[in-house]
Amino acid sequence: MSRRVKLLSMNPTNEPPPPRHPRDFLDSTAGYADAFFQRLFVNRVDYDSTSWDETVREVEKTLGGNAAKVLSEPALEKAESDVRNLLADIPPDEGFHKKWAADSLLARFSYLACRLVKPEVAVESGVAYGVSSAFILAAMEENGWGRLHSVDLRPLRRNTRRFHAIAVPEKSKERWSFHPGSSRRILPKLFSEIGGGEIDFFLHDSLHTLRNMRFEFDEIWPRLRSGGLIVADDVERNGAFGELKKKEPSLWRVVRDRETHPLHGNKAPVTFGVVVK
Ligand SMILES: C[S@@+](CC[C@H](N)C(=O)[O-])C[C@H]1O[C@@H](n2cnc3c(N)ncnc32)[C@H](O)[C@@H]1O
Predict the structure, then answer these.
(1) Which residue, 68, 98, 101, 118, is the most exposed by fewest CB within 10 angstroms?
(2) pLDDT tens-digit readout, 120-157
């Protein structure tokens, strides 16, 4: 089977990419300006950190459950191998930057968190290939309930749009709602759409600027239920994640470790944040 046929067969409906909207250009341009501003004026932060193993132990202690058992579930192994095969089949000059896809530890942690928290409502910002979405949805399938709301800009390039959310399995799509647009524009609307109820899990993996991360955390925090969990990628880029510590959460950790079984490419160093309210 050719690489292209194999790739399309992973997204069996081969749905057309979502249509572009003039707002997409404005959202993207605002993001570029924000990222440029951050590069010039915002310092990186060297947070105290903990290893993967330590963090898993602490999360298990805080939330209860059996992390080792969850991490050896066949559903997690299947999600990992499906995503690994999918990413390996995407030619290097097509799709999104591969490094945009959630790393193996962030993806595993999102699965673990969603098995322990058992969210009814999960929200994530930043989809691209949909790797993190696939792991969250795999956990929801195991839980037997839950809905994931994913917010992302629609890719501007047609060639890239074909790959949008390609890792989300067809069978999980009934648990999944995609909300196109910037998190700044979409999150406030989303909360009223879902009836102003509480959120159990939030993953930040969109634009890692101080302005955007602060906005997303400020939107999510009041709506996150007690015992709910936030996972945020690349928290060292600015001080927004540190501000969550001041809200006196049950657990606040920055994980710094190295991949052992990457989903693509070489084993990479990894940093992400975890908060339990
Ligand atoms: C690192 S990638 C997400 C990867 C994804 N979580 C995965 O595991 O495959 C970042 C994504 O954030 C999106 N993005 C950038 N700025 C955004 C914004 N302001 N609001 C929502 N999404 C944004 C980009 O379009 C891109 O798809």
Answers:
(1) 68
(2) 999 999 999 999 999 999 999 999 999 999 999 988 88
**Domain containing residue 233:** 46-276
| C-alpha span between 14 and 197 (Å, rounded) | 34
CATH number of the domain at 88, please: 3.40.50.150
The Cβ of residue 188 has, within 10 Å, a number of other Cβ atoms equal to 12
Which DSSP category does 221 fall into? G
Yes or no: say if 241 and 273 are a contact pair by the CB < 8 Å rule.
Answer: yes
In-domain check, residue 3:
no
Task: Supply 89's token pair.
Answer: 């089949």
User: Do 86 and 167 touch, CB atoms closer than 8 A?
Assistant: yes
Task: Quote the DSSP letter at residue 99.
Answer: G
* Number of domain units in the chain: 1
Ligand 1 midpoint to CA 28 (Å): 11
Let me know if residue 63 belongs to a domain: yes
17 and 161 Cβ atoms separated by less than 8 Å: yes
State which amino acid sits at residue 274.
V
Q: Quick one: which atom of ligand 1 is closest to the CA of 124?
A: 6
pTM of the entire structure? Answer: 0.94
Tens digit of each residue's pLDDT (9 = 90 or more) over 202-256: 999 999 999 999 999 999 999 999 999 999 999 999 999 999 999 999 999 999 9
Q: Which residues contact ligand 1 via a Cβ below 6 A?
A: 31, 100-102, 125-132, 151-153, 182-183, 205-207, 212
Does residue 158 fall inside a structural domain?
Answer: yes
